[in-house]
Amino acid sequence: MTKRLLLAMLLLLLQSTTFAAVADEQAELERMLHAFLAGAGEQAVHERFWAEDLIYTSSSGQRFGKDRIMAGFEEAAEEAPAGPSYGGEEVNIRVMGDIAVITFRLFAEQDGERIGEYFNTGIFRKEGGEWRAFTWQATRIPPESEANGDD
């Protein structure tokens, strides 16, 4: 009886340690996501966020990699007007060892008005102690009038 009790306690301890580790990874990934969205206009933020082997599928159906995203910063004008700000809501993070999946609703705002919404899914890999997105899918959410056929 004592051995069973000790085994049960050990299993409970291991399970709680695993849950705590997953919760820590989820919190780190959520902080990383929100920092990325807040700094979306900065080249260094993108350099840190995306894996070198990224496959990005845009909401317009185009597929490209990190090199194209980074090239966009080089092509941008020095005095470009301020773009929209971005945020994320309905964030769901699933951690499975060194792989994590983040799904969320991305919104874009300009001058205090919401100008676009997208469902986003990112798959992250932890290498060298850092999470990087290596697969990304963005899907535009149509305005309610468009979604309901109220054109």
Descriptive tags:
single chain; 38% helix; 4 helices; 151 residues; NTF2-like_dom_sf; six-stranded mixed sheet; alpha+beta; Nuclear Transport Factor 2, Chain: A; DUF4440
Record field, number of beta strands: 6
The CATH topology annotation reads as Nuclear Transport Factor 2, Chain: A
Judged by helices, strands and strand pairing, the structural class is alpha+beta
The average pLDDT is 85
The arrangement of helices and strands along the chain is: HHEEHEEEEH
The end-to-end distance, rounded to whole angstroms, is 71 Å
Organism: Wenzhouxiangella marina
Pfam family, one: DUF4440
Protein name: SnoaL-like domain protein
InterPro entries: DUF4440 (IPR027843), NTF2-like_dom_sf (IPR032710)
Would you mind describing this structure in some detail?
Pfam families: DUF4440. This is SnoaL-like domain protein. The protein has a six-stranded mixed β-sheet. The chain is built from four helices and six strands. It has one domain: Nuclear Transport Factor 2, Chain: A. The protein has 151 residues and is of the alpha+beta class. It is globular, with a radius of gyration of 20 Å. A hairpin with a 5-residue loop joins strand 1 and strand 2. 38% of the residues lie in helices and 40% in strands.
